[in-house]
């Protein structure tokens, strides 16, 4: 791959030799093209780009500002392969470091950014399709809805739903108009279902808009929206008389439920139909009076016809899901954190969850809070993102960089905030800009990266992890990230690593750049002496185990046990009250992760702590309330103890009073006998049979001469 770098009219210092030498020793990276620093690659030196484009090599241009220009130049260059044959990549080194106050120390970071940008593209992912024919429902009062309808009608098939009287419909009937109270709106782009109750005494389909009813009404209870204001109507029914020929007005008509399907919805009411942070695609809500938002909504909806594809952002493995068992609710983290209401419980049927891919917006928060790895992010998947993280940190260290902070940010609002910070640093002496040790990591959504990748990055040599939040993140994402960071920090602090390793930064808009700039200049935290070489796994728990093993091996103060916060704990033990436990083993059947197990050879309750995800199903299933959860990370015996099976409780087997064969446990049989002691069906010989094995109970019943037989009836 050939890389073209430019110092943007000598506005940033670039050490091409150092960058070239670093990439020459970085596995998988290329130093081709780095022997030349361009000054005006997008202007006077555009010929250098065209010559490189004709060479046919893969191209990386270290400029994102002029990406469109370079793509057009490639198309206009005779002999240059098209971008379909040879894609051209772009990386930002200017705002990311070249325009910082410590730009002269940013060479290791720039080398790392270039090396990461040279990595192969992620594997393609499955897609989710939407098909929209352009049928749009506009909900609102007559004036606003008709105004919006006029702006949409030349591109879309418009219908209007009026929920209340007021305003005026045009005299010309240009599109269907309904009236009624919306009772349900569900679906997504291309597949909305709207249901409403038609309560208006005037049937708008039969109404000819002759306006006779308006003229006849003595209370002015009917207006040009052709709806009756029942609060003003005094039941004179003059309107019914003048509409006798058309028969459009009927005050005795029962509310009629109506259901229709639409591709798009424009909601112009004060309160939206969808209250979640991320409404379905194809639905737009605009508050009354917000003209700018209405104009933006119209522009958006006009383009939503045809077939659209988006990535399927997640993978779901039902066998790993700890949501529920036997209709008992366990882990509910993904359902609670989803800002798009795309995840629903299926505990009454499958026992797991259902994720609607058409509603999923790809935030990945569900995969971050999922303790078992049943939900995994796929855009890109963890191994691909892990390779990018290792490349960034490894190249940075190879170039002489120290104390790297990985700054996770979204590719939309997050990237804009960092770009604005870099530009401000270029002209404002009070702004420092992105520090040289801060390595930006662009992802689709910040909530998609969690504790497994954070700890893997620390194990691979990062000093700290930062996550930049903007106004696009839902409130529950922040709560989830705070809880996950508390878990990771508890582990690192418990192992003796000094400092604060996990940070949330917030910049909702450019007015908060100064605060972000100051927050980013924080002291580094203690990292590992020797970086790990493992690859991030597709399985979340496997990655956590690899990271924990390395962090423990490098720990300044190894310990046997680390207490973890209860909220969002991915690790822990099960504490059994042996005085209450009857060894019924219902907890074993409820455990979705094979953390709890029985012993076929003896009445024992066994446990593998590494497998426990603290879902609480065992605690909720136990009929004796003998189980409690204890969040912790157990690291005894160098971390080996938590991976081995141990006995939590064992009991003396009960022996059949007739044949002596062991069955059940002493505690279970004694508890059963005690509970049934007062029952009329279990007195005398029947009570004694409770103490027998299944075979002996049958023999005893049929050999008892006092038993009533069917032949005696």
Could you provide a short overview of the structure?
With 713 residues, this protein is an alpha/beta fold.
Q: What's the number of extended β-strand segments?
A: 32
The helix fraction, in percent, is 25-40%
How do the strands line up in the largest sheet? 8-7-6-12-13
C-alpha end-to-end distance: 94 Å
| Number of DSSP helical runs | 22
- Share in β-strands: 15-25%
Shape: flat
Which structural category fits the helices and strands? Answer: alpha/beta
Mean pLDDT: 94
Low-confidence parts = none
Largest sheet: 5 strands, parallel
Q: Radius of gyration from the CA trace?
A: 34 Å
Structure in words:
There is one protein chain. This protein is α/β, with parallel strands linked by helices and 713 residues long. The protein contains 22 helices and 32 strands. The protein has a five-stranded parallel β-sheet, with helices on one face. The chain has a four-stranded parallel β-sheet with strand order 2-1-3-4, with helices on one face. Helix 5 (107-117) runs antiparallel to helix 12 (382-398). It starts with a strand and ends in a 10-residue tail after the last helix.
Write the layout of secondary structure elements.
Elements: E1 2-6, H1 16-24, E2 37-38, H2 46-54, E3 59-61, H3 67-76, E4 88-90, H4 94-98, H5 107-117, E5 127-132, E6 135-139, H6 142-152, E7 157-162, E8 177-179, E9 181-186, E10 192-198, H7 212-216, H8 238-242, E11 256-262, E12 264-267, E13 283-285, H9 291-302, E14 306-311, E15 314-316, E16 324-325, E17 328-329, H10 333-337, E18 343-345, E19 353-355, H11 365-369, E20 375-377, H12 382-398, E21 405-410, H13 413-427, E22 438-443, H14 451-459, E23 464-469, H15 475-494, E24 502-506, H16 513-520, H17 540-553, E25 561-563, E26 572-576, H18 586-590, E27 596-598, E28 604-608, H19 617-621, E29 627-634, E30 645-650, E31 653-655, E32 662-665, H20 666-675, H21 685-689, H22 694-703
Parallel strand pairs: 1-2, 1-3, 3-4, 6-7, 6-12, 7-8, 12-13, 21-22, 21-23, 23-24
Antiparallel strand pairs: 5-14, 9-10, 10-11, 15-20, 16-17, 18-19, 25-29, 26-29, 27-28, 28-30, 31-32
């Amino acid at each position: 791959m050939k890389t073209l770098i430019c110092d943007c009219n000598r506005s940033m210092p670039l050490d091409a030799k150092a960058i070239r030498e670093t990439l020459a020793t970085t596995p998988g990276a290329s130093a081709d093209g780095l022997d030349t620093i361009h000054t005006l690659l997008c202007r006077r030196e555009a010929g250098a780009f065209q010559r490189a484009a004709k060479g046919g090599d893969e191209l990386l241009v270290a400029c994102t500002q002029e990406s469109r220009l370079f793509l057009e130049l490639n198309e206009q260059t005779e002999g240059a392969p098209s971008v379909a044959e040879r894609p051209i990549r772009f990386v930002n080194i200017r705002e990311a470091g070249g325009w910082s106050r410590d730009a002269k120390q940013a060479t290791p970071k720039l080398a790392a950014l270039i090396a990461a940008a040279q990595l192969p593209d992620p594997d393609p992912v499955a897609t989710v399709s939407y098909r929209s024919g352009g049928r749009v429902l506009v909900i609102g009062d007559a004036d606003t809805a008709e105004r919006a309808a006029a702006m949409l009608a030349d591109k879309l098939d418009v219908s209007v739903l009026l929920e209340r009287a007021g305003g005026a419909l045009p005299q010309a009937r240009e599109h269907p108009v309904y009236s009624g109270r919306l009772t349900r709106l569900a679906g997504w782009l291309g597949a909305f279902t709207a249901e409403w109750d038609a309560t208006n005494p005037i049937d708008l389909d039969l109404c000819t808009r002759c306006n006779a009813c308006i003229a006849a009404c003595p209370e002015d209870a009917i207006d040009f929206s052709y709806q009756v204001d029942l609060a003003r109507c005094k039941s004179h029914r003059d309107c019914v008389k003048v509409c006798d020929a058309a028969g459009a007005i009927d005050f005795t008509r029962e509310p009629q439920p109506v259901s229709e399907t639409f591709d798009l919805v424009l909601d112009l009411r004060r309160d939206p139909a969808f209250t979640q942070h991320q409404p379905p695609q194809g639905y737009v809500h605009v508050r009354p009076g917000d003209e700018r938002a209405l104009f933006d909504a119209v522009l958006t909806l006009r383009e939503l016809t045809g077939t659209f594809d988006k990535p399927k952002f997640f993978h779901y493995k039902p066998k790993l899901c700890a949501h529920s068992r036997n209709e008992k609710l366990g882990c509910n983290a993904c359902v609670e954190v989803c800002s798009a209401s795309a995840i629903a419980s299926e505990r009454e049927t499958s026992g797991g969850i259902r994720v609607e891919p058409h509603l999923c917006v790809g935030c990945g928060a569900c995969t971050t809070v999922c303790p078992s790895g049943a939900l995994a992010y796929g855009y890109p998947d963890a191994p691909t993102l892990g390779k990018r993280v290792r490349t960034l940190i490894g190249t940075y260290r190879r170039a002489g960089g120290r104390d790297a902070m990985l700054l996770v940010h979204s590719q939309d609002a997050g990237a804009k905030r960092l770009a604005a910070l870099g530009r401000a640093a270029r002209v404002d002496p009070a702004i420092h800009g992105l520090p040289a040790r801060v390595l930006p990591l662009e992802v689709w959504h910040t909530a998609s990266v969690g504790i497994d990748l954070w700890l893997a990055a620390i194990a691979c040599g990062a000093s700290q992890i930062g996550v930049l939040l903007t106004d696009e993140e839902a409130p529950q994402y922040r709560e989830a990230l705070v809880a996950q960071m508390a878990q990771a920090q508890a582990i690192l602090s418990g192992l003796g690593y000094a400092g604060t390793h996990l940070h949330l930064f917030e910049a909702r808009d450019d007015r908060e750049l100064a605060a972000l700039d100051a927050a980013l200049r924080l002291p580094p935290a203690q990292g590992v002496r020797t970086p790990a070489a493992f690859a991030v796994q597709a399985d979340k728990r496997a990655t956590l185990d690899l990271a924990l093993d390395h962090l423990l091996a490098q720990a300044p103060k190894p310990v046997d046990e680390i207490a973890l916060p209860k909220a969002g704990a991915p690790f822990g033990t099960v504490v059994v009250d042996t005085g209450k436990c009857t060894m019924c083993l219902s907890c074993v059947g409820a455990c979705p992760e094979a953390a709890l197990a029985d012993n076929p050879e003896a009445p024992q309750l066994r446990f593998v702590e590494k497998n426990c995800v603290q879902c609480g199903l065992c605690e909720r299933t136990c009929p004796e309330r003998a189980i409690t959860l204890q969040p912790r990370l157990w690291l005894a015996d160098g971390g080996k103890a938590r991976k081995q099976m141990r006995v939590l409780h064992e009991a003396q087997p009960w022996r059949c009073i007739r044949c002596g064969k062991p069955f059940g446990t002493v505690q279970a049989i004694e508890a059963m006998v005690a509970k049934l002691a007062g029952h009329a069906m279990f007195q005398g010989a029947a009570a004694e049979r409770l103490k027998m094995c299944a075979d002996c109970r049958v023999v005893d019943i049929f050999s008892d001469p006092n038993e009533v037989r069917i032949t005696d009836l």
